[in-house]
Amino acid sequence: xxxxxxxxxxxxxxxxxxxxxxxxxxxxxxxxxxxxxxxxxxxxxxxxxxxxxxxxxxxxxxxxxxxxxxxxxxxxxxxxxxxxxxxxxxxxxxxxxxxxxxxxxxxxxxxxxxxxxxxxxxxxxxxxxxxxxxxxxxxxxxxxxxxxxxxxxxxxxxxxxxxxxxxxxxxxxxxxxxxxxxxxxxxxxxxxxxxxxxxxxxxxxxxxxxxxxxxxxxxxxxxxxxxxxxxxxxxxxxxxxxxxxxxxxxxxxxxxxxxxxxxxxxxxxxxxxxxxxxxxxxx
Length: 283
Ligand SMILES: O=C(O)CCC(=O)C(=O)O
Ligand SMILES: [Fe+2]
Hints:
This protein folds into two domains: 8-59, no CATH class; 79-278, q2cbj1_9rhob like domain (Jelly Rolls, Sandwich), CATH 2.60.120. The protein contains six helices and 17 strands. It has helices spanning 8-19, 24-33, 38-59, 107-117, 153-166, 202-205; strands spanning 79-81, 86-93, 97-102, 122-123, 125-127, 134-136, 143-146, 177-181, 187-190, 211-218, 224-225, 228-230, 235-237, 244-248, 260-262, 265-267, 270-278. The strands form four sheets. It has a nine-stranded antiparallel beta sheet. The chain has a four-stranded antiparallel beta sheet with strand order 9-15-12-13, with no helix packed on it. Helix 1 crosses helix 3 (38-59) and helix 2 crosses helix 3 (38-59). The model has no long low-confidence stretch (mean pLDDT 93).
């Protein structure tokens, strides 16, 4: 793959440096020293990195990585301006890619989402990736419903806020999903991406492409249990009203470590709103 302005010689030079483990900053500095404009150097390096990753994926029989939202850098800001609200960063992990946010929603916004959706709840289905049919399954014992994107002023406000928070186009988001877990209910370990090799995924993939990230917002604080768990990382996020967990997966593969679950609610109930982000426009 070549981009305008990057010839084969330069690509090779960049790839050699990337493969030898030089830091992006060091490569950029070397390019600027050779007379490159900083922005053009960064663009060329990004192209080289992309080619390097695609080649690695081909060699290992893996799906090629997609761009994913990157809400915060490591050791970056502790507070993010999400447009109409300042959100705190409580934890930030690179692998699996997980960010825990504090105060994404106000208490009254959580209560309003629950009030608006509760009459429309139905047993949550699981997509059968062989047949493409949604069906109720023992692995998922919550009740749920979907708001259409922009269905009402509150959904629209939250969608706008999330788009600003994770820096991802609003149009690439699915509508908010509301879930209620009663005592003992859970969502067993699963991936949120669609398996491209299975025939039942084709229909949903045709609309917006692959999912690349999820944001699970906690609408109440369960009495006990109901954490969101990441078994590969032996990590869990406690469900606290108004907080949210973001996680990203750059390809539909377990190597992302994005296996996660809604652990059983031990006492009380648990309400969440989930936002899934697609790689492309979800219309
Ligand atoms: O309830 C949770 O903590 C996780 C929800 C989830 O995994 C999902 O909605 O896909
Ligand atoms: Fe999930």
